[in-house]
Write a structure and sequence with these properties.
With 185 residues, this protein is an all-alpha fold. It contains eight helices and no strands. It has a domain at 76-184: Cytochrome c-like domain (Cytochrome Bc1 Complex, Chain D, domain 2).
């Protein structure tokens, strides 16, 4: 008799558990604040925003964290000045040729070619035309001109200042100068 009562009790519990489940409605949420967060109105409790609810421009001369200002302008005069005066701040012990090569192959080789001969994969497929070689006599590239071009871009080439930090840009510059020297041999 006791076993019959136990079986009936277990059956009632199982049936009630199964009968409460409906696939058409969501399950119970025991901690709903983890699923549906409370929405806060940005800028609502600050007295810094007197003219309404809006973000403000940073103060003049402010520099974002991790970024240094580049004192050369994005024009022909800035390019010429960078070409003449800007030098690689990394000394020979800080230049890592393999890292520069890896970065070059990732960001530059697709257009400029892995040898710097202007025959990258996009040029061979005729997606981009007119990519010059690094050893072209009329170009006379320098460390400053390469860095300025990486920072701002030039002609059809876009800027890579957001993809490469300052140290990585200089590693690429050192590798490009090595490719130029190899092409001139």
């Amino acid at each position: 008799m006791k076993s019959l009562i136990k079986i009936i009790a277990i059956a009632v519990v199982l049936i009630s558990a199964v009968s409460c489940k409906k696939d058409s409605r969501p399950n119970y949420q025991f901690m709903p604040n983890m699923y549906e967060s409370v929405g806060y109105e940005a800028y609502s409790e600050s007295t810094a925003f007197r003219n309404g609810v809006e973000a403000q421009l940073p103060a003049d001369g402010a520099v974002a964290r991790g970024h240094l200002p580049f004192e050369y302008a994005n024009d022909a005069d800035g390019f010429a000045l960078a070409k003449e005066t800007l030098m690689n701040p990394l000394d020979s012990t800080q230049i890592d040729v393999t890292r520069g090569k890896d970065l070059y192959n990732i960001y530059c080789g697709i257009c400029h070619g892995v040898k710097g001969d202007g025959q990258g994969a996009l040029v061979k497929r005729e997606k981009i035309l007119g990519v010059p070689k690094y050893d072209d006599a009329g170009r006379a590239i320098t460390a400053g001109s390469i860095y300025h071009t990486i920072y701002y871009g030039k002609n059809a080439m876009g800027s890579y200042k957001n993809q490469l930090n300052e140290e990585e840009r200089w590693q690429v510059v050192a590798y490009v100068l090595q490719l130029k020297a190899d092409l001139e041999k």
